[in-house]
Amino acid sequence: MSLINLIAILLFPEIAFSSSDSSSFTFNGFKSANLSLDGLAQIMPNGLLRLSNLTKQQTGHAFYPTPFIFKNSQNSPSTFSFSTHFVFAIVPQLQPLGGHGMAFVIAPTNGLPGSLPSTYLGLFNESNNGNRLNHIVAVELDTLKSSEFNDIDDNHVGVDVNGLVSVLAKPAAYYNSQTGLFQNLTLNSGKKMQVWIEYDGVSELINVTLAPIEVAKPSVPLISLRYNISPVINRIMYVGFSSAPLLTSHYVLGWSFEINGIVSRPLDLSRLPKLPRIGPKKQSKILTIGLPLISIVSLLICAFCAAYYVRRKWKFAEVLEGWELDYIPHRFMYKDLYIATKGFKDKELLGTGGFGKVYRGVMPNSRIEVAVKRVSHESRQGMKEFVAEIVSIGRMRHRNLVPLLGYCRRKGELLLVYEYMPNGSLDKYLHDQNPKFALTWDQRYRVIKGVASGLLYLHEEWEQVVIHRDIKASNVLLDGEFKARLGDFGLARLYDHGSDPQTTHVVGTLGYLAPEHTRTGKATTSTDVYAFGAFLLEVACGRRPVEPKASENAVLVEWVFSLWSKGEILGVVDPNLGGDYSEEEVELVLKLGLLCSHSRPEIRPGMRQIVRYLEGVVDFPELSSLFSSNGVAFAYNEGFDDFNVSYPSSTQTAFTGSSSVANSIIYSGR
Ligand SMILES: *[C@@H]1O[C@H](CO)[C@@H](O)[C@H](O)[C@H]1NC(C)=O
Ligand SMILES: *[C@@H]1O[C@H](CO)[C@@H](O)[C@H](O)[C@H]1NC(C)=O
Ligand SMILES: *[C@@H]1O[C@H](CO)[C@@H](O)[C@H](O)[C@H]1NC(C)=O
Ligand SMILES: *[C@@H]1O[C@H](CO)[C@@H](O)[C@H](O)[C@H]1NC(C)=O
Ligand SMILES: *[C@@H]1O[C@H](CO)[C@@H](O)[C@H](O)[C@H]1NC(C)=O
């Protein structure tokens, strides 16, 4: 292959497939073919050769423009072998009317002037039909029975020499190699069919083979005619097609020809042009039934998709305001939280606190286990400050705090995402009688020290003073190693070091609330210490600070105090411990609990001091001196009076039901 050919292939692939030289050509479609056309013949934009036109009854001819040499000399008794292969389609426009066929023709001119349409197939006219000076050999594909030319039927293939009375004609059929039989074909079925015409110059045999487009060349030809065409064939002849349609369209899709041999470059059937869409009836059916149906269905699909999209959008809608953009790294997508908690299923519910429900979840991508707290909020007031607090809290890292991982905000709802604590809250270990939740004294003591350490961090070690406000057993969580983690400090108010605490709604849990807290509504580090004292007693005694149902000794601290004054303090120890504990440690915890529960906040130790006591770094002071010197009984009773006074009858219900006093949200006061 020459360089120019190669470039031609690259630039004009369709040219490359319609190659030709002096003895052969191949057209896979006629897009760039230079054919001699006359009459109705035309090449359509897609490369289809159309030999007819419905409006007039005329002829159409398409010839290869250059002639071929068929003989060595004009009078030579032998003609060169040749072969041709083409794909055609006869498409009737009005069945069953319409007809007249087409023909492959070898002629002395590249056109057939004076020829007639209809039964003459554009090959001859009444004066020259059958004249041996015509020098025409044709293979007709006839779809009309013309009795004047002895046609055998209206669907035949015939070999014509100089005239329309065929030398040999056969009903259109092809050899089926599987059945070994000839199978009828309908020429004007509108289907694509192939024809192979071969002439063997030595044996003087004309073979015509027919087959549907999808069938490979059959091994047995339809027509095999021994006939010496040499007297008819001139030395130089043209090859082409003739057509005389009547209410039909004749198409040639591809064509190859070769002289002196079998076609060496077969047609590439996959590259042939497409037939135009036919059958207006079919189209109208599509238009009248199919189109409306399709549009209705697609309309429904669209509506469904839109509804789904809107629903999804609504379902996963979040609230994100401009000022929040800085906090994006701390934000979770609601969709992820929704997937993580399986749509906030009840099955994933870990617990219900005063501020909302907590769900267990597994984040979709990272597979990290989280606890998601849903806090409902109505007002947008103070939201900015609250989110800032949350983000600030999210930066806190202490081994005894539950890490806050981030948040998400929706309309009327705030979601806080915490690290998941596999062993749950301490509450159930203290109060559930199930032995699988039993905790030894050593474990309890470690929990106490852990909570003290976490609280010290909040009070003194973080950049701001953080008051927890709701220290209680159910807010102490146990991680995988049963280490205590203080949770729910997302509800705490933050105060800058040294600044005055603001007054706000009382938040906390009955039995853990310091008397001055309920009186003034002010939460301080001392009120946290008071709650921690109640917690100490709870852990050591295995009893809630207030047992509303108990007929006597309903208030734990009162009971512990009374036994302590009698010198029988170990009588309050949790019987579930079975006496297996360090008396020294238990006594320390109980006495520390009493000290922290002192009604006068200035007597209560600070968290740093408490940690020192628990670690044994500092000796615990003589409790009786502390209480007596300040008039313990009076002070204590006074504190307790306050406690009772601060709870009018409406809140007394809290004793019997939930122990949570305030359900107002911390930030609502801002
Ligand atoms: C039929 O042939 C005439 C004359 O050649 C032409 O004007 C007309 O457009 C053709 N019709 C079609 C359908 O090609
Ligand atoms: C087409 O063929 C004719 C006849 O051989 C010739 O005169 C003409 O130049 C050819 N045109 C092209 C574009 O090849
Ligand atoms: C018949 O065809 C021949 C050859 O093309 C032509 O010379 C002749 O004039 C035609 N006769 C009629 C009557 O058209
Ligand atoms: C095939 O066509 C011929 C001629 O039209 C007819 O005689 C024959 O019965 C047909 N065969 C089949 C199987 O249709
Ligand atoms: C023509 O067909 C006959 C019979 O099938 C076969 O023997 C012969 O080889 C064929 N000739 C050509 C040129 O294909």
Automatic annotation (TrEMBL):
UniProt keyword Glycoprotein, yes or no: yes
Gene3D superfamilies (UniProt xref): 2.60.120.200, Phosphorylase Kinase, domain 1 (3.30.200.20), Transferase(Phosphotransferase) domain 1 (1.10.510.10)
InterPro entries: ConA-like_dom_sf, Kinase-like_dom_sf, L-type_Lectin-RKs, Lectin_legB_Mn/Ca_BS, Legume_lectin_dom, Prot_kinase_dom, Protein_kinase_ATP_BS, Ser/Thr_kinase_AS
Major subcellular site: membrane
EC number(s) from the headed UniProt entry: 2.7.11.1
Taxonomy, superkingdom: Eukaryota
SUPFAM superfamilies associated with the record: Concanavalin A-like lectins/glucanases, Protein kinase-like (PK-like)
Binding site for ATP: K373
Parts of the chain that traverse the membrane: 286-310
Broadest EC class assigned to this enzyme: transferase
Record's subcellular location: Cell membrane
Topology within the bilayer: Single-pass type I membrane protein
Signal peptide segment: 1-18
UniProt keyword annotations, A-Z: ATP-binding, Cell membrane, Glycoprotein, Kinase, Lectin, Membrane, Nucleotide-binding, Receptor, Serine/threonine-protein kinase, Signal, Transferase, Transmembrane, Transmembrane helix
Residue span(s) of domain Protein kinase: 344-623
Family under the similarity heading: In the C-terminal section; belongs to the protein kinase superfamily. Ser/Thr protein kinase family.
Name by which UniProt lists this protein: non-specific serine/threonine protein kinase
The species this protein was found in: Rehmannia glutinosa (Chinese foxglove)
Upper lineage: Eukaryota, Viridiplantae, Streptophyta, Embryophyta, Tracheophyta
